[in-house]
Amino acid sequence: RPECQAWTGTLLLGTCLLYCARVSAPVCAVSMSQDFGWNKKEAGVVLSSFFWGYCLTQVVGGHLGDRIGGDKVILLSASAWGCITAATPLLARLGSAHLLFMTFSRILTGLLQGVYFPALTSLLSQKVRESERAFTYSAVGAGSQCGTLVTGAVGSLLLDWYGWPSVFYFSGGLTLLWVCYVYRYLLSEKDLLPAVGVLARGLRVPRHTRVPWRQLFRKPSVWAAVSSQLSSACAFFILLSWLPTFFKETFPSSKGWVFNVVPWLVAIPASLFSGFLSDHLINQGYRTITVRKFMQVMGLGLSSVFALCLGHTSSFCKSVVFASASIGLQTFNHSGISVNIQDLAPSCAGFLFGESRSPCVVGVCLGGYLIETTGSWTSMFNLVAAISGLGLCTFLLFGEAQRVDLSPTHEDL
Q1: Which residues are CB-neighbours of 104 under 8 A, at least 6 positions away?
Q2: How far is CA 108 from CA 132, 159, 189, in A?
Q3: Residues near 200 by Cβ (< 8 Å), separated by ≥ 6?
Q4: In Å, how far from its chain's centre is CA 89?
Q5: Under 8 Å between Cβ of 276 and 171
Q6: Per-residue model confidence as pLDDT tens digits over 236-254
Q7: Residue 411 CB coordination number (10 Å)
Q8: The CATH number of 1-204 is which of 3.30.470.30, 3.40.50.10490, 3.40.50.11540, 1.20.1250.20?
Q9: What pLDDT, in 10s, does the model give residues 28-38?
């Protein structure tokens, strides 16, 4: 248990730094647009380019986590994305084609970060008991709100004092310090070298460990989990990418640290509470799938209602409240669909998790296109609500929590 607690705290910090690097571009989007002369579509290309790379390595990250260990995948990728993030301002100014170089930098960052959550899902599904999965995943997942909060607060100050490059230097440098800590105290050369050797030789899956994919994808519950996870990822990433620009343009006289901090300050306790509530209800005897569906009603259903409200108010205070409620409620997805994938198939949870998040780039691109075409932010928030509603209905109809990755002869549920 002491080792488990050490890893939980370390992975929470790792998730925090992952999002510090990830949201650096959204926080700096307005300043970079002014610096380089980008319009909305060009800014949308830069913001969505992260997800072009991100979606390509989701499945790879899950597969690697299932085969060589999620902890090793996370450390190797973090060392690379930390370097890329710290070097992003230099890459952006390599030549006159700022849009091209910035897009390339964000694609690389996305490629490297895409393996993180699938590898994390694989690690937790194999190491954490079912009765503790929701809280553990929610605690580690709270790092995403912590990272957004840190970059929103410290990044806004650095942005005002030293310019947008300082935000990238800050998040990249902290990531590299975290990598040094993990390498020195939790993993070592003897742990990493075998994993690197396996990668160099290519992954070969022994016959007795192969997953019955044909049987797996015949299950409606698997498709429901994949589609619902895709919906929650799309909705979250659209808001994550565009909310800073929404507030900056709709309320130009407002303080950046308010709208970049308050929603994520609300989301952290909401994430922890959702994990505690989920495990508590299951331990009290409620059916696992009932609890998972309740969490999704909150995470996809109620959160989308507050997202819709954002498009129909002209008050800054109300907008901050609605954004905080929507982001906070979305953390209930950690205790719903994210853990449901581990319920269904712990032997290949990383792969399924990665597969369900791969196409999320479409939502961010579409959001930017709608804003530029209609000239209204309401269309983007309507898109968030439509995506969330579709995922919720699918999960409520077909979602299950029984394990489906076992061979029929051993399936005793």
Answers
A1: 49, 91
A2: 34, 23, 25
A3: none
A4: 23
A5: no
A6: 888 877 888 888 888 887 7
A7: 12
A8: 1.20.1250.20
A9: 888 888 888 88
